[in-house]
Predict the 3D structure of the following.
Amino acid sequence: MSRPYICNRCIRSVSRQQHRSLSTAQYVPPHASIPGLLTLTPSNLNSYKDTPPPSLAQTSYASQYFTSQSPQFLFSTAYFRSFPPSTAPEITFLGRSNVGKSSLLNALFNRPNSKLAYVSKRPGRTKVMNVFGIGGAKKGSEARNFIGRGGLCVVDCPGYGFASREEWGKEVVKYLQGRKQLRRAFLLVDAEHGVKSTDEHILELLREAGTPHQIILSKVDKILYPRAKKPTPEKLHDNILRLRAICEEVRTRVQPTGNRNSIVLSDILCCSSEKSVDRGRKMGLDELRWALLQAAGSESTESGKKREVDKGLLEKTVGEDGIYAWGD
Ligand SMILES: Nc1nc2c(ncn2[C@@H]2O[C@H](COP(=O)(O)OP(=O)(O)OP(=O)(O)O)[C@@H](O)[C@H]2O)c(=O)[nH]1
Ligand SMILES: [Mg+2]
């Protein structure tokens, strides 16, 4: 019986016979076509189709933005009509109940212990829309709950599906259809369970409303690090390939169906709110932070410097009185 041979380029065992039968020039190790796959980087963790992966300078800028400023809880409301006028761009997290929306929001703001948003093992924990702001804060107590220019708001929504309620959904739908400040809805899909029919329904709704949206695969640690023990490089490689296959499968399910209004960004972000990679950084979080800044128009330049505010764009989006339109 031929003994296995560990190729030190691809760190995978191949049979000695198979290895000998190929000359060095011909031999393409199974992993060589995917350089650097054994370390998690923005480009091999996430699946970018429409935009280039952010550079290190850009993710560092995004990380700094979300971790060096204090997030503020602004308000909770069950009703779309209670959303106040605001000049700040908004981003929302949507998805089935228990998919990890509130956990992701805590991880986004780097608040794993002093939790901003309530998290629970039981589905249906978030019952109202909870709004948090960061950046653009003015000094002084009067302006405490005010998010000014350069800041953004994140809206954590109740989930749909199991243990959810119809009335919660109605108000979220009104928000998705009517809120002028909403720049992008991030739809979370559990990496283990994939796209469900309820997700397809929401995608259809977002397309019809012309609401920009993007998919986040949540809980990717369950695919990449399924056991408590760190996987071997070989296993991690296979798990990354599995994650890529999941991304492709998900992408085919979220493609627009020829609707001219559809605004789907087909880059898929892969995140974990639980599992950290190097130096305590949660998987995919800096890329998510970057995507939020891009959606809000507050991203840095390519070299990681703060971008000058585009006054023309502001005039177009903010309106004459400097305040966005109220709700609908
Ligand atoms: N393994 C793993 N578990 C996670 C992750 N994110 C969240 N969870 C767990 O999933 C469960 C649900 O998390 P939540 O953040 O409350 O989910 P949600 O989407 O806000 O749920 P609702 O508010 O009920 O709609 C909790 O037990 C979390 O600890 C993750 O990235 N990886
Ligand atoms: Mg929640």
Observations:
- The two ends are 73 Å apart (CA to CA).
- The chain has a mean pLDDT of 80.
- Residues 101-102, 125-126 surround magnesium ion (ligand 2) (CB under 6 Å).
